[in-house]
TrEMBL record:
InterPro entries: GAF-like_dom_sf, HTH_MetabolicPath_Reg, Tscrpt_reg_IclR_C, Tscrpt_reg_IclR_N, WH-like_DNA-bd_sf, WH_DNA-bd_sf. SMART domains: HTH_ICLR. Keywords: DNA-binding, Transcription, Transcription regulation. Residues 1-63 form the HTH iclR-type domain. Transmembrane segments: none annotated. It comes from Pantoea osteomyelitidis. Residues 64-247 form the IclR-ED domain. This is IclR family transcriptional regulator.
Length: 249
């Protein structure tokens, strides 16, 4: 039993700190590298972890985590609740619509997608994992987390994905404050260069952000003077999903 608990703790630590190396995990968990390595490869063979090759190989959680999402999400709950609002938002904006769920640590996972009719469009696969602090869906959720959780995410490190990524903690907190004030987030290419997005949080009955919805587009179709219009449409879609109501119906 202790061996199983130890293995699960390694899995949880990867989820919280990803991408993370064997050496970093060994130090954080005060465990021998050989033990950590064995656990990582066991989860890798089972499909729960994936290895990012490079000068220093690092580990991340696999999208397989979606396979064990709560039944209410996989069944008639969120999965069915998002269909109408996603279609309405896509038709109103003609842009790709994503719904993502918060993984409880520092990332969001694409739960569903409805593509833009434009031949040039932004596409991320269902199950794609992205950092919470540099994506529209992520920032829409992060802005409404508790101050302690926000600080924990920031303290874990703000990696730059391109020159536009917000990596200064003070600047990020200011941006999150703007999200709270207007009700939606704006991603001006912070994660993927040339991809702009606008997102809004989906709350549960306790007013906790558990998911989000966004529209995503290439910078060639992004128009600053349409932000308020797009933002209001996205907020309306998020509100109409009725997360808790759907789970109980």
């Amino acid at each position: 039993m202790q061996s199983l608990i130890k293995s699960l703790k390694v899995l949880e630590m990867v989820s919280e700190k990803q991408p993370v190396s064997v050496g970093e995990l060994s130090k954080m968990m005060a465990m021998p590298k050989t033990t950590v390595q064995r656990i990582l490869w066991t989860f890798h063979e089972a499909g729960w972890l994936r290895l990012l090759e490079g000068d220093m190989p690092r580990w991340t959680i696999s999208p397989r985590v979606l396979a064990v999402r709560p039944n209410e999400l996989a069944g008639g709950g969120l999965a069915s609740a998002v269909q109408g609002p996603m279609a309405e938002l896509r038709d109103a904006t003609q842009e790709t619509v994503y719904v993502s769920v918060y993984d409880g640590s520092g990332a969001v996972v694409v739960f569903d997608r409805l593509e833009s009719p434009h031949p040039v469009r932004a596409v991320s696969p269902v199950g794609d994992i992205a950092p919470i602090y540099s994506t529209a869906n992520g920032m829409a959720i992060m802005a409404f987390l508790g101050e302690k959780r926000i600080d924990e995410i920031i303290d874990a490190g703000l990696n730059a994905f391109n020159p536009s990524t917000i990596t200064d903690p003070a600047e990020l907190k200011q941006e999150l404050q703007r999200v709270r004030e207007r009700g939606y987030s704006v991603n001006r290419g912070y994660y993927r260069s040339g991809i702009f997005a606008i997102g809004a949080p989906i709350f549960d009955a306790a007013h906790q952000p558990v998911a989000s919805i966004c529209i995503s587009m290439p910078d060639s179709r992004y128009q600053e003077n349409k932000i308020d219009h797009w933002g209001n449409l996205t907020v309306k879609a998020a509100q109409s999903i009725g997360f808790q109501k759907s789970l109980k119906s």
